[in-house]
Amino acid sequence: MRCGKPRRSTNQNVSADEIACAPCSDAWLTESTHHAAAVSLYVTHYNLCRVHEALRTTPGVALGIADRVWTIGDLLDATLALEPNQAEFHGN
């Protein structure tokens, strides 16, 4: 059995597998939220902390978004300063 979007039979009855899978829905949502947070951190690190070989600086500095290259500590301080539900994730 695969948790995720349950399939309906042709007569639209709910199967035992679908009932057993119901608690997985909340876990999937939490996992999706955590994934979105991880991707956000990665993109921020890529743009503000990681010096690129061709640019010889970060994309954020090259575009004028940041005035200096951030350290990992700067990134963590900025991230931890946010209130837990302040950040919004725009997913599908």
Task: Tell me what the structure shows.
It is built from four helices and no strands. It has 92 residues and is an all-alpha fold. It has one domain. The mean pLDDT is 77.
Task: Draw up the topology in text.
Blueprint: H1 16-21, H2 24-48, H3 59-63, H4 72-80
| Estimated share of beta-strand residues | under 5%
Task: Report the uncertain regions.
Answer: none
Order of helices and strands: HHHH
Ends distance: 24 Å
Q: What is the subunit organization of this protein?
A: single chain
Total count of domains: 1
Task: Provide a compact summary of the structure.
With 92 residues, this protein is mostly helical. The chain is 49% helix and 0% strand.
Characteristic terms for this protein:
mainly alpha, 92 residues, single chain, 49% helix
